[in-house]
Amino acid sequence: MKPVIYVTRKIPDHVLKPYEDSFDVRMWDQEEEPVPRDVLLREVKSADGILCLLTEKVDKELLDAAKHLKVVANMAVGYDNIDVEAAREHGVVVTNTPDVLTETTADLAFALLVAAARRIVEATDYIRKGKWEHWSPYLLAGSDIYGKKIGIVGMGRIGEAVARRAKGFGMSILYHNRSRKESAERELGAAYRGFTGLLQEADFVVSLVPLTDETKKMFDQDAFRNMKPSAVFVNVSRGGAVDEQALYDALVNEEIRTAGLDVFDQEPIAPDHPLMKLDSVICLPHIGSASVDTRTRMLELCLDNLKAVLHGEQPITPVR
Predict the structure, then answer these.
(1) Of 28, 178, 220, 320, which is the most exposed, with the fewest CB atoms less than 10 Å away?
(2) CATH number for the domain whose boundaries are 4-98+292-310
(3) Residue range(s) of every CATH 3.40.50.720 domain in the chain
(4) Is 238 assigned a catalytic role?
């Protein structure tokens, strides 16, 4: 009898087909809507494995209900939606999807940086609203990128990928991390700074930190007040790393110039959220890894992890 996995969002048949001999698949039938909690709790009772998204909370309640569960494959690098300690206590392996989304997320981070600096979305809306009637010297003038200083907070795989892109723009690279990354300093010419020192010096500040007790709301009122008035702030990590009211106030009070955000404290963000009302902010719906190739590789890695664990092998990318 094949093991059973439950997939919490509808995914394409062609992705699942190579695994049809490895396990039986049950799946929530909606692509856009998350599986309701009561449905999830009912389905996990007989599941040996779960393929889930960040929208699903894998906590003690769920783990207590899932008596046969052996593995949870999270389709993300982060796993703050999972109580990893509780999973260990239940003997459940947790895996994530590092590496495969590194370059794609770095592309998005740098795209946000460029778009925010050069006011790309605001300029597009300017035309759509019929405002473009004349040309003037400072019409929608933004910030230069070439030769400026980028400050990367969180120099992990994605941070290093962003730094490689910054080198192509002739940028000076500053970084802050829990520990020094001598390889990044040697290979990328990155210079380590304390958190406050980085904020004071950088023209562009990019958040790439995991969400932990240490990083929760680390970008607060003091952080934004330490940035340059011309600073561009980009967040593609976790929304919880930012005090959104403090960011809103900093933008309104012109303590920083602009921001590009792919993540928010509460997702999905409401259309009437205060940040959505500011021309100085670009807001995206958490699409950092959203290329067809990368999302397919993420799903395949989840399925490979499920297959390995459920057939008595070691997981490929376990959460330690």
Answers:
(1) 320
(2) 3.40.50.720
(3) 4-98+292-310, 102-283
(4) yes
